[in-house]
Design brief:
The protein has 360 residues and is an alpha/beta fold. The chain is 26% helix and 27% strand. The strands form 5 sheets. Strands 1, 2, 3, 4, 5, 6, 7 and 20 form an 8-stranded mixed β-sheet that branches. Strands 9-16-10-11-12 form a 5-stranded parallel β-sheet, covered by helices on one side. A hairpin with a 2-residue loop joins β5 and β6. The N terminus is likely disordered.
C-alpha cells in the first residue's frame, strides 16, 4: 500500500484514532478510548441503517427506545470527557500516511471528509456499518424496518398476535424464523416463495418440509408489490399483493436482505480484506477479540464486520475495537522506550501488559 506524505489538514491535531461511523459501534469505540484519555475524531453521515425502525430492542436499560435517542445519549456520554471531536460529515476517502509530528514522523492515516478537509490519526476504525440490497419487489423499501424485520429478537413481539410471513425461503436457516414465530405465539405463518422454492437443494427441501409440518402455509405466487399499512406506535401491517391479483395482509414480514459493506471504495482503497458470510454477504474480515484487520493499524467493528447485525453486538464490537486501539498504541510507545534504553529487553517490553494476541 502506498504511503502518502501528510498534506494540509483541517486541524494540526493528530488524533489517536479516526472513527468512520457514529452508530452504536463507532460511539462505543469512542467511549472506550475516552475512558483512557485517548483522542478521537468521529465521522458521521447522519444516516443510519435502523432509521426506519420505530424502536430499538434488546438494548439493556434502553429497551423500546428510539435508536436516535440511544445514539444521542451515547454522544452525551462521550462529549462530557472532552477527548472526542464529532465531524458532522461522512468520510470520502482514507489512506495510510506518514505524518510529521512534534516527536518526528509517525505512521498513521489521513481521512478526507465530504467537504474536502483532511484529518490525521494514528489508528483507523471502520465502523461505517453495512448497506442492505433490497430484492426487486416494489414497496419493499417502504416496508423495511417498520414492517419487514431482519431480526425477531429486535422486532416482532409487539405484533406477534397477528398473522406473519417469511419472505423468500432460499436458505435452510430460514426455518429459525418459523420456530421463533411459534415461540412468540404468532397465530398464522405464511412462507412466501415469491416464485418456486428451490426444493432441488436438499437443505432447503428439508427445512420447507419441517415448516409445513409445523403448520406454515406455503405460497409460491410471484409478488407484485408490498404496501405498508401505517399504525400508531407498534401497530401496523403490510399488504402482500400477488401478480394474480390476490392479497394477503400480515402484521410483519421476516426477511434478511443481502448486505454489503458501506463505503466499499474506502475499504478497497485501504486494501482491507473482505470475505463472505454463510449467506454470501460481504463482511470486513476481522480478528477476535479486538477487530484487527489485515492492514496494520486498521480495526473494524459493528455491522460491517459481523453477520449478526444487532445494536448490542455493535456496541460490544466497538468497545473491543477501542481496547484494541489502546493496546496497539501502548505497544508502540513501549517499543519506542525500548529503543532508547539499553537496560530494557525488547521482548519483555513488547509483552508487558499486552494481550498475547497483540504481542505476537
Amino acid at each position: 500500500m502506498n504511503m502518502a506524505r501528510s498534506t494540509t489538514t483541517a486541524s494540526s491535531k493528530l488524533y489517536d484514532a479516526l472513527i468512520l461511523g457514529a452508530g452504536p459501534a463507532g460511539l462505543s469505540t469512542a467511549l472506550s478510548l475516552c475512558r483512557v484519555k485517548h483522542t478521537s475524531a468521529i465521522f458521521s453521515t447522519a444516516s443510519f441503517r435502523n432509521d426506519p425502525a420505530f424502536r430499538a430492542h434488546t438494548v439493556l436499560s434502553r429497551d423500546d427506545q428510539p435508536a436516535a435517542d440511544i445514539r444521542r445519549f451515547g454522544r452525551l456520554d462521550i462529549e462530557k470527557y472532552g477527548d472526542a471531536h464529532f465531524v458532522e460529515r461522512g468520510a470520502a476517502s482514507a489512506q495510510r500516511a506518514t505524518i510529521s509530528s512534534s516527536t518526528g514522523d509517525v505512521s498513521g492515516f489521513e481521512v478526507t471528509d465530504a467537504s474536502g478537509e483532511v484529518w490525521r490519526g494514528r489508528k483507523l476504525v471502520l465502523a461505517m456499518g453495512s448497506k442492505d440490497i433490497y430484492p426487486d419487489i416494489p414497496g419493499y423499501d417502504h416496508c423495511w424496518g417498520n414492517t419487514i424485520y431482519q431480526c425477531l429478537f429486535c422486532d416482532g413481539r409487539e405484533r406477534s398476535h397477528t398473522p406473519a410471513a417469511i419472505l423468500s425461503f432460499d436458505h435452510p436457516m430460514q426455518l429459525h424464523y418459523v420456530s421463533t414465530m411459534l415461540q412468540m405465539g404468532v397465530p398464522e405463518i405464511h412462507v412466501l416463495g415469491n416464485g418456486p422454492i428451490d426444493v432441488q437443494d436438499e437443505g432447503i427441501a428439508q427445512a420447507l418440509q419441517s415448516a409445513k409440518a409445523l403448520g406454515c402455509k406455503v405460497d409460491e405466487r410471484k409478488i407484485a408489490k408490498l404496501t405498508p399499512i401505517p399504525g400508531e406506535g407498534h401497530e401496523g401491517a403490510a399488504d402482500v399483493v400477488f401478480e394474480d391479483g390476490g392479497k394477503l395482509r400480515v402484521g410483519f414480514i421476516a426477511h434478511r436482505a443481502a448486505t454489503t459493506v458501506s463505503a466499499p471504495e474506502i475499504v478497497k482503497g485501504l486494501g482491507v480484506e473482505v470475505v463472505s458470510d454463510p449467506f454470501g454477504n460481504d463482511l470486513i474480515k476481522r480478528e477476535e477479540p479486538f477487530g484487527k484487520t489485515n492492514i496494520d493499524g486498521v480495526f473494524a467493528c459493528g455491522d460491517a464486520g459481523t453477520m449478526i447485525k444487532q445494536f448490542t453486538f455493535a456496541m460490544a464490537h466497538g468497545a473491543a475495537a477501542g481496547a484494541g486501539v489502546h493496546f496497539a498504541l501502548s505497544q508502540e510507545r513501549q517499543a519506542a522506550v525500548t529503543e532508547k534504553s539499553k537496560d530494557l529487553k525488547p521482548e519483555y517490553v513488547k509483552q508487558m501488559g499486552m494481550p498475547a494476541i497483540l504481542a505476537k
